[in-house]
Design brief:
The mean pLDDT is 83. This protein has one domain (2-91). It contains five helices and no strands. By secondary structure, it is an all-alpha fold. The protein is 84% helix and 0% strand. Helix 1 runs antiparallel to helix 2.
Length: 94
């Protein structure tokens, strides 16, 4: 019963990681083409933090993975910069 719950939590976290990774990757692509390449490339690189295969590579090669709390704080910062500071929010009227 407990192992089944752990697998369920792991699947949910993996799905959320893919969703946020794709969303932040899309923000990066939009910034590259619509705003400026420098913040766009920065967002693209930060989006790879959320993809589970990139996390597995970090764990395998360097022996550590990025904690969930750091990913949440990083996600909030990316959203804040995109909606508050970036020209991308102004282009779409947000």
């Amino acid at each position: 019963m407990i192992a089944n719950s752990a697998n369920s939590n792991s699947a949910v976290l993996s799905m959320m990681s893919w969703i946020f990774g794709i969303a932040f990757f899309a923000i990066g692509v939009l910034n590259v083409f619509l705003v400026h390449p420098v913040p766009g490339v920065f967002y693209l690189l930060l989006s790879f933090v959320y993809f589970p295969p990139a996390n597995a590579i970090l764990k395998e090669r360097f022996g550590f993975s990025i904690p969930l709390v750091v990913k949440i704080i990083l996600g909030l910062v990316i959203v804040w910069f995109t909606l508050g500071v970036s020209d991308l929010a102004e282009m779409f009227g947000l």
